[in-house]
Amino acid sequence: MMAQDKESRTFFEFILKYFLPMHLIENANVKNRVRVDLIRAMVDAGLENLSVPLVQNQSPVSSGSRLDGLSVPDHFIVSSAGSEDGSRWSHEVADMDEMTVLDNLFVGKDGVSKSRIFDTEPTRNPLYIRLHLTKEYVKLAKREGYTLPRSEYLGTRAVTDTAMDGVSFTAKAMPPESQLTEILGPAASSVNAIPGIKIQAALSYDNVIAFRHNLWPAEEWVHRHRKSGWPDKGLVHQCVSAGCYIVPVGPGGLQGLEWRYSFTAQERLLANSLTLLQKKVHIIMKLIQRHCVLEEFPSTALSSYHLKNVLFWLCEKIPRSHWTEPNIYHLLITFLNEMLGCLVRGCLPHYFVPEGNLFARVPKAHLRQLARSVKKSRNNMIEVLGTLGKKVKFTDIYDARSPMFLFIQSLQSQPTASFQQILVSTLGALTDDYIRLIRHWLGEIKASQAKQPDGLKSKDNEEKDRNTLNVLSTPTSQDEGLQQPKDGASETAGEWIHYQGLYHIALNNLTECLQLAVCDMENLRMNTACQPQHTREFLLTVMMKYMAKHSLEPSIVVWILSYINFKTEKHMNVKSTLENSLALYEKNDPTALTREEYNTWKLSVSTAADHPVVSECLPNAEWHKRIIMVTDPNLLQCILNIL
């Protein structure tokens, strides 16, 4: 029984490791930071055309899971129905959230007269307050010619209407038929279809106008005892010093006279202090919530914000040393159990203000149904992972077969094999998929580059292009995964750049998976436990063994070695790395090639390492940003059109 339980945990660990590799989360953070910079420029342009009658002192603050590192990386959702022409796919990208923060200060037109706009008053719900207009503000605003509401309190509707104006400005740049603008909670939300692509895709932009609030409303949180030691005193001090916000939404998402405390700044500070594994657990939980729990019982009563609160509570309770990849299955079960308990009790304490119950206004019948749905997911994790494996395809690796599919295929084809043999077989098939994908994009680059119209090439680059084609040797066998473009396909300079970006991002992201897979295979063959981190020498030796066995193209070999240097922050010449790796490989591992084949391959790799064209393309921080920009052309074009 214990052996079966151990095998089950190993199985779940294996599937979850390759379903959402860690580097995808890391790369998504970089992508989102680039996008947020572009959106901030867009919002600045929009605010110049808006009049906010309350104040002149305002500042933009990017918010949401994009900058928290808690958003699901860009992915495709596969619908169970639809045609085979691509319409059954929908492209999912994280929402773009922007908060315009206003000071509680009104400045007269003369620039001298000033007054505080409101004083805060508590309500029965500790998460909400009222904003009582000051007599000084009322007097000054009337003198300035503003028409004020009859109520003594500032209502939320006036502010959300102003936010709607900002979203409408953004939507004007999009095709009219693609716009959907509405109020969702405190945010004015616009969903815009991304034109120019066959699959369904949308860009959602939320704008919230909030007031800055410098009085800290969560004193218990500051002095709370934390079993895990997270967050530490330094981080707690940072959170308190950042101050919180007041956003225009009342209990149950209603508009009225009650405003809600927002801890956006604190949530970002806390989220950015989490490990990649903690973020991964949260992201997988978001996928389980959407594609399993809410598929069973569609409801708005269980949101990603609820999951974020549960995550923070768990991070306080569970020591950081327990948040490791081998424990990921146990951590997901713990997460589901915690959520289940909150639903059964009808109480999810707000992380910063635990007196506030986030389920207070949810009907008990909804809570019971959601609890049944969460329990069903917890008790059927194999089915849950199978559902996610079929539905969710992350854009960086979606052309590779899923580990779940390969594992089941290996089980069916080798009924008498041991569990370890099944894993080795599955990993071998997975690495072959990664290599095929890399070779596919290499072939697309060469084919599209060769077909470029002469007018699209500059004379200065013609010689470099010829050299690149010579250095990037291309496999000719269909077994090696090269897929030539269809006859008559139109290749433009833009498409070539796009293919080049996809090829490089495939090398970047899939090399990470390749490293995981070949190292896991090596560990399994040596009958040792998989380690969360491998020494640089071990990694290079194992990778060289795999590359020599498969006679990988020289440019790919040079890239992988350079990428390992880049990721391990080892500032070493790629030529030296190559020589050291070959020496280690020749010393410890006999090659499957003949001596003549091996020497020919070794010479071609050494030549590629010296080639200036290859050297120009090797990975670095600036390259990383540039390639991320290149690989998202449709989304970026929409943003640039708005700008």
UniProtKB/TrEMBL annotation:
Residues 454-467 have a biased composition (Basic and acidic residues). Residues 452-488 are annotated as: Disordered. Residues 468-481 have a biased composition (Polar residues). Pfam families: Mab-21_C (PF20266). Residues 280-375 form the Mab-21-like HhH/H2TH-like domain. This is Uncharacterized protein LOC106178685 isoform X2. The gene is LOC106178685.
